[in-house]
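Re: that backbone. Tokens:
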């Protein structure tokens, strides 16, 4: 059964367990019916490192290999004297775990793999 934590605001975010079939095999992002799927790969890249989407599009990250990866980001903006967090995620990606996000505000949202950022495993979602 899919389990998702949803936070309301600039981004609707879910980090959860992908549905499994009767044999225990996860089917990753397919179970969430996303508009876009971004795969974390064993060659230490995301298959779509830059992606431009419209508002309210559902994006799902999954791990397509056997190397441990994450989707990690902290995007903030100064609003007068106040610092607002637009996107704060640190989701583990494995065959069972996925990250799903829907962006409600235009802008650029960079992210990286917590384990492989130094090797260049980064990406950006541009919402227009």
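Recovered sequence:
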């Amino acid at each position: 059964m899919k389990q998702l934590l949803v936070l309301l605001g600039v981004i609707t975010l879910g980090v959860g367990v992908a549905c499994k079939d009767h044999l225990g095999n996860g089917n990753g992002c397919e179970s969430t019916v996303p508009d876009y799927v971004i795969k974390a790969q064993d060659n230490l890249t995301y298959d779509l490192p830059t992606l431009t989407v419209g508002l309210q599009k559902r994006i799902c990250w999954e791990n397509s290999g056997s190397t441990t990866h994450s989707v990690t980001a902290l995007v903030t903006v100064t609003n007068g004297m106040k610092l607002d967090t637009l996107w704060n995620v640190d989701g583990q990606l494995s065959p069972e775990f996925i990250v799903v996000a829907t962006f409600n505000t235009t802008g650029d949202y960079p992210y990286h793999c917590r384990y492989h950022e130094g090797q260049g495993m980064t990406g950006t979602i541009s919402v227009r």
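The mean pLDDT is 82. The beta strands are 3-4, 11-17, 36-40, 50-53, 58-63, 69-79, 82-93, 97-103, 107-112, 122-127.
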